[in-house]
Amino acid sequence: MAKLKIRIFPDPDLRVKADKVESVGQAEKDLLADMALTMYLSQGVGLAATQVGISKSLVVIDVGDGLIKLVNPIITKKEGAQVSEEGCLSVPGECIKIKRAKIVVVNFLNEDGEPSRIKGEGLFAKAVQHELDHLSGKLIIDYLNPIKKLLTRTKSCRRI
Ligand code: NI
Question: Which residues pair with 159 in a beta bridge?
Answer without folding.
Answer: 87
